[in-house]
């Protein structure tokens, strides 16, 4: 096998350029290995709108079926729709997507039955080893599995709407930017029958992303949405990423709403349903999140950045909800998996259940001044991290922890500095009680990170 799997098998998924780094014959081997490692006699497979997705997912299905597994193909879907199918059918699943990566990329997000994640420590490394061991397709099973098709979109939409009461909301005008991704496929069905005046943007499924990158966390990719919300006089705007598992919100002024504020808002709503429940948040979410959780009678649990850590803590603690500052939102009622669509329905229910604008609604959940994530390219991550630590660890009233990178906390501010696992970058997030303090801390840390000595 000529492909270098070390380049495409990541911590949580498979991802690379097609056909340069991987292709349909390799996808077929991944399908066979997936069946061997999970021990599955049946699986479910879905794909996004990328040009290479139908061929790759079909090859994966053939590889799985050749090993004796029955394959249910659900076709075009969002990643959380695949998780729904895995959870509701009780089957392992594979989703073909590269999320917001450029058109030439594709990937596979895999899960066990009930949407339990498959990552490096939970099966992905074994799948890679098995694929590397095969020079060609492995010996087929005595009885091959079947490949059938099934549409799950309406069942997925009905399940989401069974978890949030959106039937009685006041009429709202909402602009949705699907970024030519899978939101254009799922939103019309999920929003059907709701008191919403839907203004669609870029709903045409197009894996070449002709309008903008389908990554709403990058400010340049929500400029069109912001302008349209203002022009339409809409109540809010929603932006989905390429595989529509993340959702980003802008208010009636076209201003971005912090994902931490959305995490706090949804946490309060979930705690109203599940009093005393546990809420997971990663360590770069705002101080607002654990504050709101405690005020709402819940138990906040802080974890590392990354969906595998969130899902592990969700399962360990029985948490009802988890949120990340990257706009991933996880729900116990959704098999601990992440679904931006369910978070969006919570925002619509909260906004539509009262008369004020969204900016007022989220103000109580957005209490601090934040820097957002700032990336710096460095020659030596370890040395730069050490320099920052040395500059702060002797100061009065400062505490330091290393749960994920370096977190420095003082009474009125905190910052986290984390190395990227895949690039020569350090990622800074800072927050303070006021803008002046945040700016000063942010700039001091950046000067140390970017020092040239």
TrEMBL record:
<dbReference type="InterPro" id="IPR005846">
    <property type="entry name" value="A-D-PHexomutase_a/b/a-III"/>
</dbReference>
<dbReference type="GO" id="GO:0005975">
    <property type="term" value="P:carbohydrate metabolic process"/>
</dbReference>
<dbReference type="Pfam" id="PF02879">
    <property type="entry name" value="PGM_PMM_II"/>
</dbReference>
<dbReference type="InterPro" id="IPR005845">
    <property type="entry name" value="A-D-PHexomutase_a/b/a-II"/>
</dbReference>
<feature type="domain" description="Alpha-D-phosphohexomutase C-terminal">
    <location>
        <begin position="373"/>
        <end position="446"/>
    </location>
</feature>
<dbReference type="Pfam" id="PF02878">
    <property type="entry name" value="PGM_PMM_I"/>
</dbReference>
<feature type="domain" description="Alpha-D-phosphohexomutase alpha/beta/alpha">
    <location>
        <begin position="262"/>
        <end position="368"/>
    </location>
</feature>
<keyword id="KW-0413">Isomerase</keyword>
<dbReference type="GO" id="GO:0016868">
    <property type="term" value="F:intramolecular phosphotransferase activity"/>
</dbReference>
<protein>
    <submittedName>
        <fullName>Phosphomannomutase/phosphoglucomutase</fullName>
    </submittedName>
</protein>
<dbReference type="InterPro" id="IPR016055">
    <property type="entry name" value="A-D-PHexomutase_a/b/a-I/II/III"/>
</dbReference>
<dbReference type="InterPro" id="IPR005844">
    <property type="entry name" value="A-D-PHexomutase_a/b/a-I"/>
</dbReference>
<dbReference type="InterPro" id="IPR036900">
    <property type="entry name" value="A-D-PHexomutase_C_sf"/>
</dbReference>
<keyword id="KW-0479">Metal-binding</keyword>
<dbReference type="GO" id="GO:0046872">
    <property type="term" value="F:metal ion binding"/>
</dbReference>
<keyword id="KW-0460">Magnesium</keyword>
<dbReference type="Pfam" id="PF00408">
    <property type="entry name" value="PGM_PMM_IV"/>
</dbReference>
<feature type="domain" description="Alpha-D-phosphohexomutase alpha/beta/alpha">
    <location>
        <begin position="155"/>
        <end position="254"/>
    </location>
</feature>
<keyword id="KW-0597">Phosphoprotein</keyword>
<comment type="similarity">
    <text>Belongs to the phosphohexose mutase family.</text>
</comment>
<dbReference type="InterPro" id="IPR005843">
    <property type="entry name" value="A-D-PHexomutase_C"/>
</dbReference>
<dbReference type="InterPro" id="IPR005841">
    <property type="entry name" value="Alpha-D-phosphohexomutase_SF"/>
</dbReference>
<feature type="domain" description="Alpha-D-phosphohexomutase alpha/beta/alpha">
    <location>
        <begin position="7"/>
        <end position="133"/>
    </location>
</feature>
<dbReference type="Pfam" id="PF02880">
    <property type="entry name" value="PGM_PMM_III"/>
</dbReference>
């Amino acid at each position: 096998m000529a492909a270098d799997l070390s380049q495409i098998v990541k911590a949580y998924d498979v991802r690379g350029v097609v056909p340069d780094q991987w292709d349909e014959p390799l996808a077929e081997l991944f399908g066979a290995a997936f069946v061997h490692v999970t021990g599955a006699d049946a699986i479910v497979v879905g794909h996004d709108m990328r040009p290479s997705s139908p061929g790759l997912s079909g090859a994966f299905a053939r590889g799985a079926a050749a090993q004796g597994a029955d394959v249910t193909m659900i076709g075009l879907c969002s990643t959380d729709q695949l998780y729904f199918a895995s959870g509701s059918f009780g089957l392992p699943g594979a989703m073909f997507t590269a999320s917001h990566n450029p058109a030439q990329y594709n990937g596979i997000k895999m899960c066990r039955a009930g949407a339990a994640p498959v990552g490096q420590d939970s099966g992905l490394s074994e799948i890679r080893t098995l694929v590397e061991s095969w020079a060609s397709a492995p010996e087929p099973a005595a009885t091959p599995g079947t490949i059938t098709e099934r549409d799950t979109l309406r069942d997925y939409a009905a399940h989401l709407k069974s978890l949030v009461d959106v039937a009685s909301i006041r009429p709202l005008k909402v602009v949705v930017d699907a970024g030519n991704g899978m939101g254009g496929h799922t939103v019309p069905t999920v929003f059907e029958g709701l008191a919403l005046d839907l203004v669609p943007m870029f709903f045409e499924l197009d894996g070449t992303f002709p309008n903008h990158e389908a990554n709403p966390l990058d400010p340049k990719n929500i400029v069109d949405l912001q302008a349209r919300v203002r022009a339409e006089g809409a109540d809010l705007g929603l932006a989905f990423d390429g595989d529509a598992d993340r959702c980003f919100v802008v208010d009636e002024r076209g201003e971005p709403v912090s994902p931490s504020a959305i995490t706090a808002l949804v946490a309060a709503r979930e705690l109203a349903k599940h009093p005393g429940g546990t809420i997971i948040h990663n360590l770069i979410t705002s101080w607002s999140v654990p504050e709101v959780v405690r005020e709402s009678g819940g138990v906040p649990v802080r974890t590392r950045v990354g969906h595998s850590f969130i899902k592990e803590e969700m399962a360990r603690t029985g948490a009802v909800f988890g949120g990340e500052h990257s706009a991933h939102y996880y729900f116990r009622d959704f098999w601990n998996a992440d679904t931006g669509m369910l978070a969006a329905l919570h925002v619509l229910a909260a906004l539509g259940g009262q008369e004020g604008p969204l900016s007022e609604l989220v103000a109580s959940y957005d209490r601090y001044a934040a820097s957002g994530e700032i990336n710096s390219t460095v020659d030596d991550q370890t040395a730069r991290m050490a320099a920052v630590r040395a500059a702060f660890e002797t100061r009065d009233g400062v505490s330091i922890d290393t749960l994920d990178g370096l977190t420095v906390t003082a009474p009125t501010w905190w910052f986290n500095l984390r190395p990227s696992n895949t690039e020569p970058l350090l990622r800074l997030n800072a927050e303070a009680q006021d803008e002046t303090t945040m700016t000063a801390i942010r700039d001091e840390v950046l000067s140390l990170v970017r020092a040239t000595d």
